[in-house]
Amino acid sequence: MAANPPTAPILFDRALLRARQNRAAKQGAATFLLDRINEEMDERLHAVLRTFSHAADIATPGDGLLAAIAGRVGTLTYVDVPDAERDGLGLQPSSLDLVVSALALHFVNDLPGVMAQIRRALKPDGLLLAAMPGGDTLTELRQSFAAAEAELDGGISPRVAPFADLRDVGALLQRAGFALPVTDVDRIIVRYDSAFALMQDLRKMGATNILIERRRTPTRRATLLRMAQIYAERFADPDGRIRATFEVIWLSGWAPHASQQQPLKPGSAKASLADAVRGLKT
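Structure (tokenized):
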């Protein structure tokens, strides 16, 4: 009797994420980062010399991405990940020319599983193009909170979701079966008057702590004040404003197709590397 496949750990409270994103939208969301990524998504799609008849957007907050790429796609289906993780993406195999996602995949509990579903939903030579926060995102805030809690509370609580690094994302694309995987990084530095102004923007993004293992009691005022002080001491510019890093990992991959460039078979080269090096020396 075959064993059941391992279940992905539940790291994120996705119902809470949806509630906070809805609250942010009602109160006036801070969309500067998402707007920049949506514009970049449109530019990157324009570099692909084809049209996309059927596309899906995986959980991108708001409708800005749809507006940005409307001229590049025929129909665009929106897929919300809470349903996708429980019931699957609900997309037919080989039904899509394009899948996009902006600032959403980092809150997926079973990212390898969702990536495999995206791969199956793409037609041969279909494209995945996505952007997600990288490992250095909010590094200043994380370091400042860790230092303050270690000093005043005797321990560190999980406050910021773990972010993937570039190598992890590249390996994930290959594991899911994508051809021609490409990853690159865009580092965005935003300056604020204080750590509290940064935290206010994070609330307006609907991007505050949704970790299942988050501390459920309010942070002490003394800890918050010490965090802000450490932040200002370590990460302020000469004018007193603090820096906040947002690292964006861009990832793309194609569903395999015979027309794509293929690696040469081992031993098929017409000349050896040693011969080429000797030729450069002569």
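The chain has ten helices and six strands. The chain has one domain: 14-134+159-192+204-214+244-275.
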